[in-house]
Amino acid sequence: MPHTPSPLLLALRAGTQACHQRLEARLPFFRDDFDLPAYRRLMQAYYGFHAPLQALLADHQGSERAKTAVLEHDLLALGLSRAEVAALPRCQALPATADEASVLGVMYVIEGSTLGGQVLKRAMAERLGIDGDHGARFLDVYGPLTGAHWRSFLQRLDQPAASHPQTVAAAIATFECFEHWLQDCGVLA
After folding, report:
1. What confidence score (pLDDT) does residue 183 get?
2. How confident is residue 38, by pLDDT bands cut at 50, 70 and 90?
3. Between the CA of residue 78 and those of 118, 128, 153, what are the distances in Å?
4. Of residues 82 and 7, which shows the higher confidence score?
5. Which of 39, 181, 184, 36 is nearest to 109 (CA)?
6. Residue ranges of domains in the chain
7. What is the reported pLDDT for 30?
8. How confident is the prediction for the chain on average, in pLDDT?
9. Which residue has the higher pLDDT, 145 or 162?
10. Superfamily of structural domain 7-184
11. With helix as H, strand as E and coil as C, how does 39-66 read?
12. Which of 189, 153, 182, 176 is nearest to 47 (CA)?
């Protein structure tokens, strides 16, 4: 049976729609000039955002939602050394995660991106010839558990503890921080 969207989920969708569309339009995955070196640079930037954010979220999400090790695997498969991965710059301007309402907003963006990764996984296999063993595991970070993880997260949104305005504000801040970081890294259109 499909999940009935909670009021908070509806507020998150509406509140982040413009940010989501703006970022999606700027991501280079479907540009004509997007090639393997551009993909590698983009994944380096993703790592620089996800590594410090995962550290902030460590007390709020289970290890089954960790993504940094998968990104590292991809970067190694794409030709970086462990030392090069360790030396990658890390985003310092991260969204606040001081309370559960803010954590839920941040996680909404991060967990929601795993759904879009399914589309990107197929497109990158076709366009760049890469798969989970050759630098694209992050695009399918949860594999067959993607739907189950998303439904589990939706159940968390159903909890009454979340503040709608605070959670939506944290989700918007996450989109904005990520977009600014990717722009600073020079990987956005």
Report:
1. 98
2. very high
3. 20, 12, 31
4. 82
5. 181
6. 7-184
7. 95
8. 93
9. 145
10. Heme oxygenase-like (1.20.910.10)
11. HHHHHHHHHHHHHHHHHHHCCCCCHHHC
12. 182
